[in-house]
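Weekly modeling sync, notes
Attendees: S.R. (lead), two postdocs, one rotation student

Agenda item 3: backlog of single-chain predictions. S.R. asked that every request posted to the team notebook include the full sequence so nobody has to chase files. The rotation student volunteered to paste the first one in as an example of the format we agreed on. Action items at the bottom.

Example entry:
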Amino acid sequence: MKTINYVNGNLADSRLFTPINLGPITLPHRVVMAPLTRLRSEQPGDIPSDLMAEMYAQRATDQGLVIAEATTVSILGRGYLGAPGIYTDEQVTGWKKVTDAVHAKGGRIFLQLWHVGRQSHVEMTNGQTPVAPSAVQYEQVVITKDGWVPVSPNRALEIEEIPGIVEEFRMGAVRALAAGFDGVELHGANGYLIDEFLQDGTNKRTDKYGGSFENRSRFLMEILEAVIPVWGEGRVGVRLGPSGIWASMSDSDPEALFGYVAEQLNNYPLAYLHIIEPRVVGGEAPVEGRPPVAAVSLRKIYNGTILAAGGFEPDSAKEIIENGDADMVVFGRHFAANPDLPSRIKFGYPLNPYDRDTFWGGDHRGYTDYPFYSEIESEESISK
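Predicted structure, as returned to the notebook:
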């Protein structure tokens, strides 16, 4: 790969490359790999593959934090063929290969626990109707064996079913611990089930899970209360997308809602709060009339460690850290294309360009074949 993008400046002396404590873990720098859905698990069974272990090990080379891709906690939580799971023994065995490979490189890895909610199809749920807090239809597509297809109509969860889904998240946390992860993250963004409960565009319930901020956040808090005892203090993170419009999400007062949620999260011994910044919202600009709710806003409310994600470049990552609006910065697309991204940012090396056509599904191409900067240097010296 010879075509590379240019990065301005050497950031070795910036706060981005100072150590940080994340719960009981000490990390050497503040560059984090985002949870990237790449759809390369073994089928059938949604089992993490040897190829996945190789990819994650590559990106642990600089001994930072890797957040593994969104991983379903149940059959009903599935929505995208190729995404891995954490609800069977075979999946635990597959993930153990990944965590062992990451730890062998000196890295740390959290698992993102996921339930897609209404973003699903009966082909993915063994014929079960997809569920949501309310039967608000989603007019988009998901991936099945037939490719990208429209979602199936969803139904509202009965109140007596909700504790069972909380238990699925708890068991996902138990299995993640058995698989050797360093912690877990709850996926509360991007229009998936937790996010659907939080926002009133998708939550029309009139029981104790709907209406007020307290009621709409109850599902998230119940999951935290189930998962934190599995892991202990400083080992559970939460991801939120306060400005997100991805998956047709909406709320009548997102600034107040997510301010309330951030305040409530102060009551839990979290590892971090992971915020998707409004600069990139599901690949789209924030919608007019929806106030941007970002790390800079929630920093005034949330007292713990903040991770910021959303279209960052090296210079903007340096800026948000040095301004104190976030403690760590999460990179997605650049990490997909640069297995040694922290080193490249630190020393101002050029970046490999990413290939969007290989993001979702496929083989090693656009996955494990991106070169390290040292390999490019070697090729260039040989060509001379």
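Discussion: group reviewed the output briefly. Confidence is low (pLDDT under 50) at residues 280-289.
Action items: rotation student to repeat for the remaining queue; S.R. to check formatting next week.
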